[in-house]
From TrEMBL:
The protein's name: Ferritin-like domain-containing protein
Stored InterPro entries: DUF892_YciF-like, Ferritin-like, Ferritin-like_SF, YciF
Species for this entry: Streptomonospora mangrovi
Gene3D superfamilies: 1.20.1260.10
Domain of life: Bacteria
Length: 164
């Protein structure tokens, strides 16, 4: 694997988030089936469909760059998935699992936001407007999802944790 130039780094990061999006799509499906909140389950399913489309947008980005994705894992997403599995193996109560799942989904979104912000910046600095635009489309979807999840988490925390 060639990692000599800044462009190689962009390709590496793009490849890692490409692997990440595929893992996230699987994870969202799994988590949507686990949570004890219809509104959250619906939100996760909607974002699962969006995530599959994001992987297609990334396909377009690789094509545009004339490259194929490097074979790299997305360590952060793999770790969040592992953390979720370890937690659920303890058979948490439904509400506790739902709160944990929401926190996990937010970790995923904020990781994605940080990743795409860095990638958009690099694409712009390279003068590649088309790449920057495609990545910005994904970034905005992640930001919108994070906002929805934050509102959902705040409502749930209020319901469960605030003193009566
Ligand atoms: Fe995503």
């Amino acid at each position: 694997m060639r990692l000599k130039e800044p462009r190689d780094l962009l390709l590496y990061e793009l490849s890692a988030i490409y692997a990440g999006e595929k893992a996230i799509a699987d994870m969202l499906k799994e988590v949507a089936g686990d949570v004890d909140d219809d509104n959250l389950a619906k939100m996760l399913k909607t974002h699962q469909r969006e995530t599959k489309d994001q992987a297609k947008i990334l396909d377009t980005c690789f094509k545009h760059l004339g490259e194929t994705p490097m074979d790299v894992p997305c360590g952060v997403i793999d770790a969040i998935r592992q953390e979720y599995r370890e937690f659920t193996a303890n058979k948490p109560a439904p509400q506790v699992l739902t709160m944990f799942a929401l926190g996990g989904a937010l970790k995923v979104e904020h990781f994605e936001i940080a990743t795409y912000r860095g990638l958009v910046d690099k694409a712009m600095m390279m003068g590649d407007t088309e790449l920057a635009q495609n990545l910005t489309t994904i970034l905005h979807q992640e930001e919108e999802t994070a906002g929805k999840l934050e509102r959902c988490a705040s409502e749930l925390d209020h319901k469960v944790l605030a003193p009566a």
